[in-house]
Design a protein that fits this description.
One of its GO terms (cellular component) is lytic vacuole membrane. By secondary structure, this protein is mostly helical. It has one domain. The chain contains ten helices and no strands. The longest helix has about 60 residues. It is elongated, with a radius of gyration of 27 Å.
Length: about 325
C-alpha cells in the first residue's frame, strides 16, 4: 500500500494528464480503502482464516509500518500520513481476525478429538455384537443385498456429483460477475470522489515548487520507501507457496487480489501521468517498484485461482 505522494504534487494549471493523474490516484485510494473488506467477509463466512498465509499478512504489515515511518520522516501532507495509519490499522484488524479463528478452531479440534476417542471406546463392543447378528440368514442373501445397495449408492453419488458440478460452475460464474461489478463500482466511486473534491476546491493543482520540494526527500525516508517496496514484493511469496503446496485457493477472496491489482495499477498510472521527469520519477521509484512489481505476483495468484480453484471444487468440475 504505497504512499500517495503524487496526489500532493500537481501543476498550477491542470492539464488532461494532471486530471488523469488525479482520477487514477483517487481510484487507487478507493481500492485500498475497500481492499481488506472482501477477505474479512470471506473469513467470517468460512469461520476460518486457514486459506490466507499469516506470513503474507505479517510481511505486508511490516511494509505498511515502514511506509508510515517514511511518510512521517519525509514530512508528507497530513492526508498521506492519515492513509498510512489507516493501512496499518486495517492490517491489524485482519491479522487479529486470523489469529482469533486459528485459536478458536484449534480449541474445537482438540475437543472433537477427545470426544471421538471416548465415543470409539464406548461403541466398540455393541458394534461387534451387531456385526455377528448380521451374518444370520440364507446363504448369499447378505451379499446380494450389499451388492444392490452399493450399486444404488454409486448411482446416487454420480447424480449428486453431476448436479454439484453444474451448481458450482454457475456459482463460480456469478462470483466472477459480482467481482467485476464491484471493481467497476470502486472505479466509479474513485472517479466521483475526485470530481467532487475538485469541484468543491478540496483538491486542486498546487505550485510547481512542490515538485522541487519532493526532490529533497530525506535519505532516511527514501531508504524506508525502498524497504516498504521490498516488503510489498516479498509479502505475496508465502501465499503463492502455500497455494502451490496445497494446490488450492480455498478460503481466499479473489476480489481481495483484484482490488490489490487495481490499486497498484492506478497508483502507478497516477504517478506516470503526472510527470515523467527524471528527478520526479526517481523520487517516486520505491513506491512505483512496490506497486507495479506486486502486479506480477497478483497475476500469479490469479493463475492459481484458475488452475486450483478451491480444491474439491476444481476436482469435481474436472
Amino acid at each position: 500500500m504505497p504512499v500517495f505522494a503524487a496526489l500532493a504534487q500537481q501543476a498550477p494549471h491542470m492539464t488532461a494528464h494532471e486530471a488523469l493523474s488525479g482520477v487514477f490516484g483517487s481510484i487507487s485510494l478507493a481500492s485500498w480503502i475497500f481492499l481488506l473488506v472482501p477477505q474479512l467477509i470471506e473469513n467470517y463466512k468460512q469461520g476460518s482464516a486457514d486459506g490466507i498465509s499469516l506470513a503474507f499478512l505479517t510481511v505486508w504489515f511490516i511494509g505498511d509500518i515502514t511506509n508510515l515511518a517514511g511518510a512521517l520522516w519525509a514530512g508528507l501532507v497530513p492526508t498521506v500520513i492519515a492513509l498510512a495509519i489507516y493501512f496499518c490499522f486495517a492490517d491489524l484488524i485482519l491479522i487479529s481476525q486470523c489469529l482469533y479463528y486459528k485459536l478458536l478452531n484449534d480449541r474445537k479440534a482438540r475437543r472433537k478429538s477427545a470426544r471421538s476417542v471416548l465415543t470409539t471406546d464406548s461403541a466398540e463392543q455393541p458394534l461387534l455384537g451387531r456385526r455377528d447378528s448380521s451374518s444370520l440368514g440364507l446363504p448369499g442373501s447378505h451379499r446380494r443385498r450389499s451388492s444392490a445397495a452399493s450399486r444404488r449408492r454409486r448411482e446416487s453419488v454420480n447424480r449428486n456429483d453431476s448436479l454439484a458440478s453444474i451448481l458450482e460452475e454457475e456459482s463460480g460464474h456469478r462470483e466472477w460477475v459480482k467481482n467485476a461489478v464491484s471493481i467497476v463500482g470502486v472505479c466509479l466511486i474513485g472517479a466521483a470522489g475526485w470530481a467532487i473534491a475538485w469541484k468543491t476546491g478540496v483538491w486542486g493543482p498546487t505550485a510547481d515548487d512542490n515538485d522541487a520540494a519532493g526532490t529533497d526527500m530525506a535519505l532516511g525516508a527514501q531508504v524506508l520507501g525502498y524497504a516498504s517496496a521490498v516488503c510489498y514484493l516479498g509479502a505475496r511469496i508465502p501465499q503463492i507457496i502455500k497455494n502451490q503446496r496445497e494446490r488450492s485457493c480455498e478460503g481466499l477472496s479473489l476480489l481481495f487480489f483484484m482490488l490489490s491489482l487495481l490499486g497498484n495499477a492506478t497508483y502507478g498510472a497516477g504517478i506516470l501521468f503526472h510527470s515523467v521527469e527524471k528527478q520526479y520519477f526517481l523520487t517516486n521509484l520505491p513506491w512505483l517498484i512496490g506497486s507495479l512489481g506486486t502486479m506480477v505476483e497478483d497475476a500469479t495468484i490469479f493463475v492459481q485461482f484458475r488452475i486450483f480453484g478451491e480444491g474439491d471444487r476444481s476436482t469435481a468440475i474436472a
